[in-house]
Amino acid sequence: FFLHFFLVAGTCSAVRITELRVPTTHIVNEDPLVLDCVYELAPEETKLVVKWLLNDQPVYQWIPGSRPYPLSVMRNRVDEKHVASEDAQKVHRAMVIAEPTWNMTGEYTCVVDTFQSRAIKAAMLQIIVPPAELSIKEKKEGETADQEEAEVTCEADDAYPEPQLSLQFRNGETIRRTYGNVKRSDEGLYDVSVVGKISRMKLQSPTPVDCVLTIHGTTYTLKRSTVVLAGQTTTTQSYDDLDDGDFREANYDDRSFRSSSNNLKVINIFAFISCIYP
Q1: Which ranges in 176-250 belong to alpha helices (H)?
Q2: Which range among 60-69, 131-140, 249-258, 261-270 shows the weakest confidence by mean pLDDT?
Q3: Could you give phi then psi for residue 2, rounded to 5 degrees?
Q4: 269 part of a folded domain
Q5: Global confidence as pTM
Q6: By C-alpha distance, which of 157, 100, 165, 164 is closest to 128?
Q7: If DSSP states are collapsed to H, E and C, what string results for 175-187?
Q8: Which of 147-156, 215-224, 252-261 has the highest mean pLDDT?
Q9: Start and end of every Ig-like domain (predicted)?
Q10: Are 154 and 167 in contact (CB under 8 A)?
């Protein structure tokens, strides 16, 4: 009876992590990355130590009454003045990374230790580095362009993790891919390119073509678009959409299309006059 009572009492007074605030993804921009570990302590808990691990390696430690101590990849990257709570036992429980980098992807574990007990909770985080540039273009006349097929190239530079690129018509139909290339820089970022060919006979002029960038296992999506015309003359225009899954339609200026149409009318009239007056 006494042993059972001791075990129950010990369990009830143990430190407990009630919430681990680690996002599944973080897009590198100007915003800091905040990782928070919310816990509850029993009154009798003593000698508190809060630790953060990245892939099982210590990267942060805080003991009440002292300053936070970032380690390894977090050294010189953590905001040591951030206050997560006014409670003296929880002031620096959070780790705020001012400038996260791609190599901070992984499993983050919060360890809350006291002399009496320990609590542990972990979550995965994927750091996303958007491409420095995402472009789509059609090979033009004078660049050994095929008269029967339109060749469209999409390129993404300096992205992480390795992105997937696909060329698509606006209805979502995937365009035949004829070439693809992936390179990783010394800095760990990826350069990716794909090339697709479209039969001009199957095109309705003008035909919007999208290059869609996605990151496996996330909802992150980025898009660039161009317009391909049937025949030999092409006019392109690109736009971008940074909102996940929320693609807006391009507002294309039809003046270039009217110009092409007027040129064809002039050619047809000239041909008609030539037939009457050889």
Answers
A1: none
A2: 249-258
A3: -65, -40
A4: no
A5: 0.74
A6: 100
A7: CCEEEEEEEECCC
A8: 215-224
A9: 13-121
A10: yes
Non-local CB neighbours of 17 within 8 Å, separated by 6+ positions: 37, 38, 39, 110, 112, 119, 120, 121
Q: Same domain for 150 and 74? A: no
E strands, the chain, in order: 16-21, 25-27, 33-40, 49-54, 57-62, 69-70, 95-97, 106-113, 118-128, 133-138, 149-159, 164-169, 177-184, 190-199, 207-214, 221-228, 240-241
Q: Which two tokens stand for residue 114?
A: 């006291």
List, for residues 224-256, the tens digit of each pLDDT value. 998 887 764 343 444 444 443 333 333 333 333
Single out the residue in 128, 156, 183 at which a domain terminates.
128
- 188 and 114 co-located in one domain: no
CATH number of the domain that residue 147 is part of: 2.60.40.10
Choose among 243, 98, 100, 102: nearest CA to 160. 102
Among 185, 206, 228, the domain-final residue is 228
C-beta separation of 204 from 171 below 8 A: no
Residue tagged 């697709």 (tokens): 196
pLDDT in tens, 120-136: 999 999 999 999 999 99
Q: Which domain holds residue 104?
A: 16-128
Total domain count for the chain? Answer: 2
Report helix, strand or coil for 74: helix
